[in-house]
């Protein structure tokens, strides 16, 4: 999900064309000893998925054993006609209803015959040597998974798209460019040993349209060995269209983040590590609003209700003028909006009865996690606390003058 550090190197080098040139310099020089099954979950028409299929078949790669397309919807007569025209390596599996990307991948995993399973989305375009750049790493028995970068195309010609492409919410799409070892990678570009995929499988508790299930799958997989990155195994992903769809996506990721925290609750020692790095300015605002309201009611100083607003606007101020000054206001605003909607989805989900019950259990048995819901990254905490202090001093000064 989010919360990964955005270092200076990442900010300075986050240019699609420069990164693409870097990937092309990679040369495959290792013997390929494994067979590959490519699993593609899809809710689109097969005619649209055919572009991805043809991209995978173009090199006549002997290591490619099969392409398994799992239709996560009701099959149509058009699909039946189209299936007869497909290459013999292409296998169509049907869910016959919308079960979600995770469960669709599970069906593909169960049907896969290759040594290695590669996941790709139905709207992605793989690089020419995508399969081999994944497979070459599995000569090392310690490697259990390989993640590659997901590059958005058609972003360099639009300032708005480029700003979204650079925001921290999408950092995980580029993790393979900046880390040699990964804990997880988006399943738009990920591979795993087949026998381990069958042991882990994807959790069906997450949103059907995607979000969180790949994180949980990655952490389960990492118990068996190393997940590494391969920058040369890139895929291109289309830019999401429509502001409403983008906002809904961030909100859904926030919802998935809450489900992820609940699922990690069952995994000893993992939940604290995950939750502690999440961005939660909305949660900070809600908590401080409750506390300041209570203090104002007890003390009779209702001005204390202004403290949360001071913290919130202090965070916005620091985002615009300090942390994103090298990229400009547009990038800062995109960052703020993306984080707010992600956090809103996460916060609202956590107050639902079934999740609130788990939160109360945590507070009861883990008193050191009393503010678990409102843990934020260091920079959000610093900015918010500065805002609190400023408003408190302002209230004291005004009260003294009156």
Describe the structure in your own words.
- By secondary structure, the protein is α/β, with parallel strands linked by helices.
- The protein folds into two domains: 8-239, Spore Coat Polysaccharide Biosynthesis Protein SpsA, Chain A; 281-401, no CATH class.
- It has 17 helices and eleven strands.
- It has helices spanning 8-13, 16-24, 46-57, 77-83, 101-111, 130-135, 159-166, 175-178, 194-200, 213-221, 243-264, 271-275, 281-299, 307-323, 329-350, 353-365, 378-401, and strands at residues 36-42, 64-71, 90-94, 116-120, 125-126, 143-147, 150-153, 181-182, 189-193, 226-229, 235-238.
- An eight-stranded mixed sheet has the order 3-2-1-4-9-6-10-8, sandwiched between helices. Strands 5-11-7 form a three-stranded mixed sheet.
Give the helices and strands, then pairings.
Blueprint: H1 8-13, H2 16-24, E1 36-42, H3 46-57, E2 64-71, H4 77-83, E3 90-94, H5 101-111, E4 116-120, E5 125-126, H6 130-135, E6 143-147, E7 150-153, H7 159-166, H8 175-178, E8 181-182, E9 189-193, H9 194-200, H10 213-221, E10 226-229, E11 235-238, H11 243-264, H12 271-275, H13 281-299, H14 307-323, H15 329-350, H16 353-365, H17 378-401
Parallel strand pairs: 1-2, 1-4, 2-3, 6-10, 7-11
Antiparallel strand pairs: 4-9, 5-11, 6-9, 8-10
Helix pairs in contact: 7-15, 11-15, 13-14, 14-15, 14-17
